[in-house]
Write a structure and sequence with these properties.
0% strand; flat
Amino acid sequence: MNPHLLTLALTTPLEQLLELPNAVRIAACAREDLQRFSAEQLAQMLASMDAAITDTVTLAQIKHGGELIDRYEKRDLDWFIEVTNQAKWPRLRSAPATDRDYLRLLALYKLGVVIEATADTPSGIIMPAVDALMESLESLVLADLLPEPPSMEQLIEEAWKAGLTPEPVAADEVRKAQSQAVRRAADARHASNRAARQKALELFASNTYRTKEEAYRIIGAQVCKAPGTIKNWIAGIPKDSPPK
């Protein structure tokens, strides 16, 4: 897996992706979901995924015969799903990352494949990259379908149900930690929504759209919000008033 393609997906401006179906959605949403990782960490995760796929292909070749198995007979997504079914995979992946993160990373990587393949192609002609684009979108959708890993609160609740109730002092500390975690999560959500609203208003003020419905759709894809949410945000500002 070429890390250059991941860099393309991370750095290409969203307005350059408008001609590629669902590309803006893939780029905007996957970038936001992976923003807690640095570019170097994402490159290392990509290398880990590539190595795990290579090992899985090698094992399949040993089991079924090298002449019968080829990495490129299946998509990277299909190979990676086999990787995640192996008991050793959770120990090999980066500690703070989940399978959802790796699927989003794969979505970005495949988008990078599409961006490079269509760089010198006339607008609208993307047939050579259709398979990679569909694989990218499927990876993003699968990431959203996977369950979130259990939170600390859920683990503590399960422990209580199992009769492992903490000592009174420890329980008090747990409640404080839970309260702080809830506040931090709420603050993060509010901050994310405020930033998305600010960006949406800036995009609406600085671009010319054929219709308001087109604006709601395009801006919503760029900030990972529903068109209806964008409509409500824009309707809530006075006419000719700059975004604040």
